[in-house]
Model the fold of this input.
Amino acid sequence: MARCWTCGSDYAGGTFGHFLTCPLCENVKEMKDLRREASLGLKELAQIQQRGFEEASLGFDELAQIQQEGFEKLSNELSRVASVIEWGFTEIEWNLQRHEAILSSIDHTLKTPNETQGNEFRKMAEELRARGVLDESERRFLKALELNPLDYRIYVGLALTYLQMGKFHAGRTFLEKSLPHVPKVIRVIEKKQTKLVVSEDTDEEDEETESEYISEDADEEDEETESEYISGGIETPTGFDLRSYSYRLIGRTHFCDESYTKAVEALNKSIELSPDYYEGYYDHAQYCALAGQEHECITSLRKAILGRPFYFYFSQKERNFDQIRDVIQNLLTEQKNENLQIAKKAISGAESSLEETRKSVNKARESLKKSRGESSLQCEEIFWNAQVLSKLALEKVATDDYMKLLEAKHLAHKSWDEAIKARNTADEERKRLEDEAIKERAKAEEERKHREYVNSERIKKRNNHLTRVVFWAVVISIIIAMITNFATNTTGFPWLAFILSLIIATTIGLYLIRKEL
Done:
């Protein structure tokens, strides 16, 4: 008995042999549309060969997004829906793998004419397979392999061609042969900058460099080989080992042969080499379920869902879990409830933080009212954003959908962060406004004192002038009175002359004081 590669159906069993895409899943119109959509959406990225792992990772994320959307688009009545989405993009996934920095950098190691020519044959073979000319693709791959038997890409490309031809055993053989030729990644940590370099051996000259080489796969046997090492500052987030990809495909061929124990063994190696290879965990969970390894199935499925949440939905439809459906459903319920509690706790924390922030924002508003400067506060805008995020999180939780629960948790944490940011901003703005108010009051007090000082000096000066005016007016009046008395030869004090002289002298003095002041 044999199973279809794409949908896992045993329709292709018996004398029909193997199918990459059997008539049952090929008739799913939505699958064709999704595959076309994925090809168009990732075409531009697949043409980029030298931009490193980060951009390739974006491509895998986009592929995962298309797979998730495909789950919603495909007919719900098809029990094979999950497998169709998971395995219907094998060719596209390999295109992304080929253009990841580690594999694309193999081109830098091609030195001999045979190696270069073999690479050209490989490229033609890849294009022929993409166009569906499988026989010619096979011949080109075999010619490339003859010219350069060390290129990992040739082995996997030929294996995928055999899988499309329905020759699963031949495909598995070349996948197994590819394992010794997987580029061995060495992490290079540069002091100043990270470069992608290719070396065949570590010699004395290499030891003198300032780079620290950390081998991903360092053992005595590897140190003795003369295989090419692709080294560089490629520190993938998951520490992905390309052998995991080969073992995953090998496991799928065993699954199609219904050799579930062998499939489990292959996936064990896959996830052991790449502990964060969530696609491998999901396949491992399926094969463990079929092989009767319930505990291992649940462990791997839990890890797969944690890393790729859309597997939560796939596992609901995946018929390979039918033998332990109750156990799977209990796990999914547990996962949903756990994330529901986490989301609610995050929302509660966000709301508490928002309440504290509201107090800080109100204090800042009071300070703003007393200020004569700004008309608005930055903290108010941040606080409003935090409230919106909290409201969105509550709406997500109300849907009781797994992915939306994860989104709710993310939104709640973001709202929490924004609330803290708004509170800190409000405190800073309030303090700044209060400091400005204190400075304004101090300035006003200084100006008041200055005015009082100026006024007191003016009064003091005026009084001094007035005193001198009166004094001299009296003196002058007395002198004038005495002169008048002497001139008229009269007895007694001449009060009339004295008073007139005093009035005239005082008037003149006051006029001069006013003019001066």
Notes: The two ends are 119 Å apart (CA to CA). Residues 246-317 form a domain with the Serine Threonine Protein Phosphatase 5, Tetratricopeptide repeat fold (CATH 1.25.40.10).
